[in-house]
Structure formats: C-alpha cells, structure tokens
Amino acid sequence: MIKRKMGRYLLTLLVVTGLAGTIEDNTISKSERKYSITLMKETYKEAVKATKGLSEAQLNFKAAPDKWSVKDCIYHIAAVEKMLWGMFEGAMKAPANPEKRSEIKLSDEQVVNMVEDRSRKVQAPEPAQPRNTGYSSLDDALADFKKTRGEHIKYMKTSTEDMRNHVVQTPVGWLDCYQVYLFIAAHSNRHTQQINEVKKDPSFPSK
Questions:
Q1: In terms of Cα–Cα distance, which of 189, 29, 181 is closest to 91?
Q2: DSSP conformation class of 133
Q3: Could you give the domains of the chain?
Q4: pLDDT tens-digit profile of 132-179?
C-alpha cells in the first residue's frame, strides 16, 4: 500500500514538474492542437512562396499610390504577427476569466473565415502600416516572420496553458486565446491573398 501511494505521488510529481513523457491538457483537444499548428505552418509557407522569384520592381509595384506593394504586405504581416502575439501573451498572463466565455459570439471556424475574407475591408492602424514597421528590406521582414512564426508553432506544440478560459476583447468582439491564435495564422493568409491580387494586376511588371 505504501509503495502504491509512493508510486502515485511520484507520478503526480513528474506530471507537475513537466518530467512525464506526455502532455496533460484539458483545455484543447488533440484535433484543435493539430488544426492550429497546421494552419500556422500552411499560412506561413504560402506567404513566403508568394514572394519567391520576384524582382525589386515586382516587389515594389503598387497598383495605385494608396495601394500596398508585395513588400508592403510582407512588412505588415511580420509586424502584426508580433502585435497580435503581444495581445495573446497579455491575455494569457492575466487571470483566467471563464465567466467571459458567454460573450464570445464566433466559432473557431467563423474567426478564421472572417479574417481571411478579403471582401471585408479594414484600415490597418498606423503602427501596422508598412511605413511604420521598421523593416528596411524584404529579407529583414521575412527573417523576423520566420522567427516569430516558429516560436508560435513551438508554443502550440508544447503548451498546456488554459487558452480557452483566457478571454480577451478584440476589435471583432470577445475571443478566447485559442481563437486569437487562429486569428494570427489567418491574418497572414489574408495578406497573402492581397499579394496574389497585386501580382494579377494588368500593370504588374513582367520582370
């Protein structure tokens, strides 16, 4: 009996200290974890792919003076990746507020679809405007994007934090932190679509 109790105690201690071999997670399912990681990986891959092989003239082309270039879109993606993660981290560090879950009006799928929907036009705030991001080249922005996206994927692979019960008010309404994570991935897809729209413009340079 004593050995059995000691065994249970050691197992509990291993789990608490993170030394057990499996993740104990009661906040998101395996399918939710897999979906969010896949979305992060695929939207990153598509954003980078959209810039491959483009000349400086193509990267800097604007369909109109008030429109964004391909380079502008990447600057914005990389900068907003960090801004949204700041929101995520701030909400996760705050006390859990499950009582606010009743304020959430959007499903996970609706969050992703809404952010990716290019028919819904949104004016980016000044700090997120390409000219204000602080990047001086496409390579700088892509390197920063690669670094932060990698960190975010790693977080979701290993985190046991209670993302569902940390709820934050956003410009699109109340979301839990898992939904904010999906929002981040979908945001880069939104502007990858914008890049592809620029490339389809009849005046886009041939080389």
A1: 181
A2: S
A3: 28-199 (1.20.120.450)
A4: 999 999 999 999 999 999 999 999 999 999 999 999 999 899 999 999
Q: Shortest CA distance to 112 belongs to which of 35, 202, 59?
A: 35
138-158 helix and 177-199 helix, angle to the nearest 10 degrees = 150
| Euclidean distance between CA atoms 55 and 102, whole angstroms | 49
User: Which residues, at least 6 apart from 199, have a Cβ–Cβ distance to it below 8 Å?
Assistant: 50, 58, 70
**Phi, psi dihedral angles at 24 (to 5 degrees):** -95, 110
Contact 82, 148 (CB under 8 A): yes
Given a contact cutoff of 8 angstroms between Cβ atoms, the answer to whether 121 and 197 are in contact is no
What's the predicted TM-score (pTM) here?
0.86
Cα separation of 49 and 26, whole Å?
36
Encoded tokens for 132: 């204000």
CA atoms within 13 A on the CB side of 14: 11
